[in-house]
Amino acid sequence: MSSAHRFDRGHTDDLMTFLAASPSPYHAVAEAAERLEKAGFRQVAETDAWDASAGGKYVLRGGAIIAWFVPEEASAATPFRIVGAHTDSPNLRVKPLPDTGAQGWRQVAVEIYGGTLLNTWLDRDLGLSGRITLRDGSHRLVNVDRPLLRVPQLAIHLDRGVNADGLKLDKQRHMTPIWGLGEVGEGDLISFVAEETGVDAAEIGGWDLMVHSVEAPAYLGRDQELLAGPRMDNLLSVHAGVAALIAASRPGAALTSIPVLAAFDHEENGSQSDTGAEGPLLGNVLERSVFARGGSYEDKARAFAGTVCLSSDTGHAVHPNYSERHEPGHHPMPNGGPILKVNVNQRYATDGSGRAVFAAACERAGVPWQHFVSNNSMPCGTTIGPITAARHGITTVDIGVAILSMHSARELCGADDPHLLASALTAFLEG
Predict the structure, then answer these.
(1) What does DSSP say about strands 402-404 and 226-229: parallel, antiparallel, or unpaired?
(2) CA-CA distances (angstroms) from residue 203 to 96, 97, 188, 189?
(3) Residue 321 preceded by cis peptide, ω within 30
(4) What is the pLDDT of residues 88-103, one digit of tens each?
(5) Residues 193 and 239 occupy one common structural domain
(6) Rounded (5°) CA angle 127-59-431
(7) What residues form the annotated binding site?
(8) In a domain, 32, yes or no
(9) In degrees rounded to 5, what are phi and psi of residue 234?
(10) Which tens digits make up the pLDDT trace of 238-292?
(11) GO molecular function: any one (predicted)?
(12) Which residue numbers belong to the known binding site for Zn(2+)?
């Protein structure tokens, strides 16, 4: 082990457990909720009246979770400190009529979700996960975490120019996984899912299913200073946010604001849903929290005016084989600490005031940090940050962890960085 190897192995080990337990957004919020419950948080239903009691609470809706901790001394106008993240990752999702096939092969019809790197799903052992909805409106989680499906790549003998010309994949024709041989039967996949989950297939009224790589997260490198795993964009931030919220709400903590974790679904396709950052979920929760404590519209306005959100999502580490694609003066490195993401065209929400908030949190936590800005010739993606700032009128700062292979079925980060991010988020939530 290198003498420079300083990361908190316990935190990183726990992240690996979280990633493995969260093959879908629905599993991720269930895992987050279980950890919050163990820390004394309790679930509140959106259909119930909320009270003014102090303590930890959370709301679940689909693949999203909003959790917050109200200190005993909080007033109706107490501001919030929010860690924002998202639970979804680019992948392959099962179509409404999933049973298909060709040439004697049984296959599963899938739709491409988000901006996934298609080639990373080829020749990989895939499981099936998500949720089913029963006719009574209840849900059951599905996790077939064993080799079940595979998207086979065409052999080089049948595509001689692939290495010289590049791999070209048609999303409709080339990305359909196989899962057996024989005749295609209507209802086969859902009958299989029903058997796996122990329910009657006739009771299944709907489903939200997707594929996932069954390869476990693992340390990588001579000194194990790297971490390889699935869905780090953005479950790495969700896991860090859960850990930070629990740490910030520990007994005896002197909080001057209300710490919040907001983990949304559907960021990878625009956030426009009832569980996405552009929907009303976060605003409703914050407003109801103010009003439950006897607050008025004026109190809500005062609380929002003092609120700050750190939107935590992954960013690009400098790639050793493609360094010319990066901004020459900004080369974030793994294990260099979290990154501050800046884009003056508001693809990220960070400004100078937000930079000061983030820098102060890192300083209090004793955490190094880095800058990220895109090459001018390659416009960057975006996050929930600008959406959160615009929708709720709150100061928002875009941050994250630098990774390689973003949107791959298997991504790579520094093994120090998850702990460094969680430490910075804890200091931020503590105010």
Answers:
(1) unpaired
(2) 16, 17, 15, 14
(3) no
(4) 999 999 999 999 999 9
(5) no
(6) 105
(7) 86, 157, 407
(8) yes
(9) -140, 30
(10) 999 999 999 999 988 889 999 999 999 999 999 999 999 999 999 999 999 999 9
(11) zinc ion binding
(12) 86, 157, 407
Which residue bears the tokens 């359909």? 176
Residues 303 and 421 in one domain: yes
- Which CATH number characterizes residue 240's domain? 3.40.630.10
Domain of 33, in residue numbers: 9-89+230-430
Instruction: Identify the CATH number of the domain in which residue 132 sits.
Output: 2.30.250.10
Q: Has residue 219 been placed in a domain?
A: no
113-138 pLDDT, tens per residue?
999 999 999 999 999 999 999 999 99
Q: Which domain-ending residue is among 213, 247, 272?
A: 213
Amino acid 318 reads V
Residue range 30-37: average pLDDT?
98
Is the pLDDT score of 237 beyond 80?
A: yes
Three-state SS at 373: coil
Query: Do 267 and 355 reside in the same domain of the chain?
Result: yes
Look at residue 328 in the predicted model and tell me its pLDDT: 92
Q: 159 and 83 in one domain?
A: no
Domain match, 303 and 379 both: yes
Burial class (CB in 10 A: 0-12, 13-18, 19+), 15: buried
Q: What does residue 162 show for φ and ψ, rounded to 5 degrees?
A: -60, -40
Looking at the fold, whether 249 and 103 belong to one and the same domain comes out as no
Half-sphere exposure of 321 (CA within 13 A, CB side): 2
- Name the nearest CA neighbour of 63 among 33, 37, 92: 33
Statement to judge: residues 49 and 132 lie in one domain? no
- The answer to the question of residue 126 being in a domain is yes
Q: What is the pLDDT of residue 380?
A: 87
Residues 4-30 have a mean pLDDT of 89
Co-location of 169 and 316 in the same domain: no
End-to-end CA distance of the chain: 36
Cα separation, 207 vs 199, whole angstroms: 13
What are the distances in angstroms from CA 263 to CA 65, 328, 363? 5, 33, 25
Condensed to tens digits (0 to 9), the pLDDT of residues 39-73 reads: 999 999 999 999 999 999 999 999 999 999 999 99
Assess if residue 3 is contained within a domain: no
Q: Where are the alpha helices (DSSP H) in 249-351?
A: 281-292, 297-305
Q: How many independent structural domains does the chain possess? A: 2
Query: Per-residue b/e over 58-80, b at no fewer than 16 CB within 10 Å?
Result: bbbbbbbbbbbbbbeebebbbbb
- Residue found by looking up tokens 């409709």 in the block: 172
